[in-house]
Amino acid sequence: MISPPVPDTPLEVIVDLLTKAKEIAKSVNAPDNLTNNLQKALDIASGLDDYLEKMTTEESEPLAELFKKTSSHDWDQVHKEGKTKFRLPKECITGHVEGQTLKMLIHMIQAKRVLEIGMFTGYGALSMAEGLPEDGSLVACELEPYLKDFAQPFFDKSPHGSKITVKIGSAMDTLKELAAAGEQFDMIFIDADKKNYINYYNFILDNNLLRLLGVICVDNSLFKSKVYLKDTTDDNGVALREFNQFVSTDPRVEQVIIPLRDGISVIRRASVSKITDDKVFHGVKGRPILDRMRLDGKVAYVTGAGQGIGRAFAHALGEAGAKVAVVDLDQAKAEAVAQELFLKGINAISVTADISKSNDVQRMIDNIVSKWGAIHIACNNAGINMNSASEDTSLEEWDQTFNVNLRGMFMCCQAAGRVMLKQGYGKIINTASMASLIVPHPQKQLSYNTSKAGVVKLTQTLGAEWIDRGVRVNCISPGIVDTPLIHSESLRPLVQRWLSDIPAGRLAEVTDLQAAVVYLASEASDYMTGHNLVIEGGQSLW
């Protein structure tokens, strides 16, 4: 059962000792300077928790209600004479600051799957669940069924509670079940019976429950200050001291103890160097594959980025770490997307340009280089489409389509390529189309189809010519993309026809294309050039 309250954290122990010392000083008529210094020390120590509470981001309403219920609930203490009731003071409960710290850690490591060993009333579980993405999940191990019943109503009130699955019973039995199923977690939080910490820890590492780059967080690692005081005889304090010492000398991991409340240990796998030193094991330049997809420090531009595919590309490149110039013919749309990126913490600017005009293209390139000093990623996406039967296609339609889709594409490639060739490195990604491979039907779009076939050949030619000077050129050929225009009444009959031609059974979403542009922009694709990456749900196969 739950023990009755005593000072829980090292700071609370200090406050308790200072309070007692001050009372003793008063009782023996100690000098005023001693009493005043004790009071000053007490003010400093007791004020810290209140200050942290005020400065930490406010908790959600379900968390506040859960904390209030936990601290006002009558808990049972079992002893020889029977049961007595007591209430937990806020200092003895996982609360606001610690909960927000756990949530912050979830965000920082971009965790999707979390394992909690020892749930208690669920405050920590719900805090972490709030930091998980929509498809994230948390498995909480709890021995006592009544604690699940206590927490569940608050989980049900929260939009994040559905991410939590509570496993009742022995935590070790649950760990064995998860290991047998091959489960792995990005973060594992241990806050259970102290004497078993070392057993949980070893089982987690021995059975690979922790994913590569995952972290183990251990609560109570400074337990009531009884961990590091030499005269400690408290069983839990001794157990945690031995645990901390074991982890600090374990060559498998690296550890830091954060003096938050009663201590949180953050533990990660140490880099392994003795087994093998090849790139497959350690990653190229020591970077695992997902890190090699990062674009930190790179400068990118995306044309036609004010909407649709271009907007999705701009977000994807920015999320991967690049600075992004949002280029569009429509100034308001370019500025709106740049503002979206800014709100996500992405360094972005808007550039207004008509890529069918050579002066605009060169000005676009000059502005970006002037702002950021380089261009590493050129995403040439702007394009137009006009439909007409071939016998009715006018030279005006043909020229207008080619001026943007092929001539404009060439001018962008050439202007960006000149910068990249001087740098000795660059990635050019052109947007072609499934129409470069097949003749889409029933719509008639001769000039569009032909221009996009030209984009593929432009890409192949530049890709072969420039790769030995460090510049890779590739293109993406999307299928039919779901946009608001697609759902207009005039196009509704065509949509049904298109769907019957697509093995995937649906139109493409712009988000289906984002991973491709990040891959082609990253060093992970350095050996690829002149390639047409087709993403069309299989439509070109039929």
From TrEMBL:
GO biological process entries: carbohydrate metabolic process; fatty acid biosynthetic process; methylation
Enzyme Commission number(s) from the entry: 1.1.1.250
Residues annotated as transmembrane: none
Pfam families listed in its UniProt record: adh_short_C2, Methyltransf_3
GO MF terms, alphabetically ordered: D-arabinitol 2-dehydrogenase activity; O-methyltransferase activity
Pathway listed: Carbohydrate metabolism; D-arabinitol metabolism; Lipid metabolism; fatty acid biosynthesis
UniProt keyword list: Fatty acid biosynthesis, Fatty acid metabolism, Lipid biosynthesis, Lipid metabolism, Methyltransferase, Oxidoreductase, S-adenosyl-L-methionine, Transferase
Record SUPFAM superfamilies: NAD(P)-binding Rossmann-fold domains, S-adenosyl-L-methionine-dependent methyltransferases
Organism superkingdom: Eukaryota
Family (UniProt): Belongs to the short-chain dehydrogenases/reductases (SDR) family. Belongs to the class I-like SAM-binding methyltransferase superfamily. Cation-dependent O-methyltransferase family.
Protein name from the UniProt record: D-arabinitol 2-dehydrogenase [ribulose-forming]
